[in-house]
Amino acid sequence: MAQGYAGFELWTDRELKSLPRLTNAEILVSTNTTYHDHDIAFAVDAAVFEIAKTRRRITVRELRAKLPSALRAHSYREVMRLVAMRRLLPAVETALLDDDALLLIPGGIDG
Question: Is the Cβ–Cβ distance between 47 and 105 less than 8 Å?
Fold first, then answer.
């Protein structure tokens, strides 16, 4: 084998798409846009702050349910932006980042 390629692996589209890694990467990259809704960002930050007082784990769906109903429909992108910034962490790094994904709140209370 050519020098420098001893650990080289070739993955096909089928293998990549069968894992949530590519999908998660696409989700997180798509949150890095110039569009930013400050009302949603404030609401999500406030919800995370309140939740962290009593527990450390929450699903994306549960977090979004804590928001005012008018903001819920557009809040997924903001939650993913916090994941991309590592302000929220996936409990299972290989799990798909959908509404059922379990997130960890750094500094949250284990309860």
Answer: no
